[in-house]
Write a structure and sequence with these properties.
By secondary structure, this protein is an alpha/beta fold. It has a single domain, classed as Response regulator (Rossmann fold, 3-Layer(aba) Sandwich), CATH 3.40.50.2300. Helix content is 50%, strand content 18%. The chain has a five-stranded parallel beta sheet.
Length: 141
Amino acid sequence: MFTSVLIIDTDAGVANAFVQALSQHGFSVAEALSTQEGLDALQKRKPQALILDVCVPGSPNVEFLREIRTLYPALPVIVVTAYSTSFTEAKAQREGVAGYFVKPFNLNALVEKLKMVISKNSMRRASDESALQTLNMPHAA
């Protein structure tokens, strides 16, 4: 089973490079080139992780990230940026991101981070579902 990842990056060449590289690592990858495309793809595809370039047109960076975090609080978001001075790792952590990479970065490090956050999120969901099933079980008298 493929792990689905959405890339939101304004640069079509960069987004395509992400798709090609991550596909070779076994991910099912979709791309969006704007905030609206990204929101539409999040709703339609329900990916297991999001890679977001914080310099996305259509919405200020932090506000768009906050919108995603509000709409999809359990979705692991990994931020990539070419401008580490304007959107720092500390800001990213305050916004609840699962990872932060400054372009150019090591693709293998990104792949490992993706695998880790998706696995962690899957285990948390399974644990939550198990707890809900336990709560909903009828108790023997």
